[in-house]
Design a protein that fits this description.
With about 350 residues, the protein is α/β, with parallel strands linked by helices. It is built from eight helices and nine strands. Helix 5 crosses helix 6. It is globular, with a radius of gyration of 24 Å.
Amino acid sequence: MPHRPGRPDSGTAIPTTAMPTGPQPGRTRHDREDDSVVQQQSRNGTHITAAPTPAPAASRRHRPFTAALVALLAVAGLSTAMTSGAQAADNPYERGPAPTTASIEAVRGPYAVSQTTVSSLSVSGFDGGTIYYPTTTSDGTFGAVAISPGFTATQSSIAWLGPRLASQGFVVITIDTLSTLDQPDSRGRQLLSALDYLTQRSTVRSRIDSTRLGVMGHSMGGGGSLEAAKSRPSLQAAIPLTGWNTDKTWPELRTPTLIVGADGDTVAPVSSHSEPFYESLPATLDKAYLELNNASHFTPNTSNTTIAKYSISWLKRFIDNDTRYEQFLCPLPRPSLTIEEYRGNCPHTS
């Protein structure tokens, strides 16, 4: 297919030096989910009833069997309780109720969200932004994600991701870059500066687990998320959305990475960006490639259920180590009205 000149994230022509040439009524869903959790807890509980009244003399020969049965049930109940406790101890980072397809596709998740503006005058290394965070403090700390916009764009272009991800149990900062013309390597550094601000100086720092961090970005911001993961291997997840970068190979990455491309992208065609990015990632790395069907380079700039569904699943699986979300990633999703192609290595090992 001949190359059609791309347009930048805000509609301004991209200079040739920056871009390459070439190709519900009633009860809510959450009410029902809360009920299901209570019901599950009830099923897992151990209940001991009062001892039965003495049996008639004719039935006393059954007492040894009855006593053994009661003892066996008590042990089984104790075993169930111990198993549940062990599972909780195995992963202290699980947040929120057990996920369903409906819950991860919903516009809002189980957490109420607040937000606060970060002035460019109060930070260094990036140009300010907006923090979205779960309002509750009863669930302990949360993982955090920094998100960069693309070339010539501002944080408003990716703002929809802030409350959507935060409502699933993350602290999220969408950033403005120092210059809207910043290249991917600069955007990568700015993403890391934003994470450092979140965990060290922000008003919500006490709500964040600084060992559980991730990065996302659109276009050059997506390329920046790869740069950030390269510079800081301790990151737990990276998600470039229709990413653009002059560097096509990323064999040094150690961060689980979900690459999202679009079949109709003429600014960062998948054949010269997202696909080579994915193919160059180490074979041993937990990685995936999601190509959106009937989508463009600018699809990530508006609310999109497919992007949200798999981004939430990826962030939960690798930032929170929450294997309850593995079901949405493995087996690999099949092509559909919204998915042109999905590749990956399953099962995940991180």
